Every structure is written in C-alpha cells, then in structure tokens.
Amino acid sequence: MITRLGGTDPDLAKALRVTRKTINEWKLQHTAFRDAIKEGKDYTDSGVVESLLERALGSEFISEVHEKPMTYMGKPIIDPKTGEVLIDRTIKTSKIPPETAACIFWLCNRRKLDWVHVNRIEVTGKGGEPVKTEHKIAVTDYAEIARILVDAGVFQLPSEGDADPAPDKILPS
C-alpha cells in the first residue's frame, strides 16, 4: 500500500483518483480501510525511528569480506568430513560515529523537558548599555497617522476656524 512506502493521505487520494475528503469519509465508514492505512504508516514510521536511532547511536557494519582457500605447501586443505576446501575468511568492519543532529533531534522529541530547543539572543548597546532606539517619522506620515486615528474614532480633526480645539474635539466622547 502507498502508506507503507511513506505516502500520505493526499498521496493515497491521488493514487485512488478521489479527493482527500473522500479518503477521510472512507476512514470513518470503513474500519478495515482506516486500520490498513494506520498499519502502513506505523510500519514506515517505525523504520524511520529505527534509522534515526541508529544515526543517533552510531553503528558498525561489515565493509569488506575476503575469502581465499586455505593451503599447506601450496595445496588446498580439504575438510575430511565434507570433502570441501577449507576457506580462510577475513571480515573487516567499519564504524559510523553517532551524528550530533540526530542525537539532538531525538532528545528534543523524546526528552522534551530536558532538551528544549530554544535560541536566545541578547542584544546590548555600546559598553553593555541598553540599546538606544530612535524613531523618526516623516512629516507626510503624520497625516497618515491622523487619518488612522480619525478612522478608529480616537481623534477628531478640528473644524476650520478652531485655533485651539477643546478636549472634547480631540478625544472621543
């Protein structure tokens, strides 16, 4: 099944030429269908977990095998019980060290309380002082700010002829 190969519900819908909504409806209506999808996804997920664990812990594998017939004075040595030539087999193993990223990923997901992945950035100004900020607004921006405040009902523009508007003209009533 598609899910056993890592496919998702949208992949399954595409393969069956139906919508994702139809897949969801079938899962609700047919427990065998739902269980088959879950089993396929679980199979794939467990393989990924196993691979991730192997990357996190490191691994060892057989990298080379050399075989040659055993000889004595240039002649092959024969096993008296089987009549076969005895083989000298040399096996070389190689190690893959643990991968740091896999370790971090595993621990952040399995030991969430101990391994929270958070980036903290501290910014200070010159000589460790607080950062000084300066905000400059262009004169044309004041008109835009006033329009936003008027539209929000926070501010009323004075009428023509009002030299000094009363507080009730500036603040909403």
Summarize the model shown.
42% of the residues lie in helices and 14% in strands.
Could you characterize what this model shows?
With 173 residues, this protein is α+β, with helices and mostly antiparallel strands. 42% of the residues lie in helices and 14% in strands. The chain has helices at 9-16, 20-29, 31-57, 100-110, 139-151, 167-170; strands at 59-69, 71-72, 75-76, 87-96. Strands 1-4 form a two-stranded antiparallel sheet. Mean pLDDT is 81; it is low at 165-173.
Following the backbone from N to C, one meets helices and strands in this order, namely HHHEEEEHHH
The counted number of beta strands is 4
> Roughly how many Å apart are the termini?
68 Å
What's the story with the biggest beta sheet?
Answer: 2 strands, antiparallel
Category by helix and strand content? alpha+beta
What portion of the residues fall into strands of 2 or more residues? 5-15%
What is the averaged pLDDT score?
81
How much helicity do the residues have? 40-55%
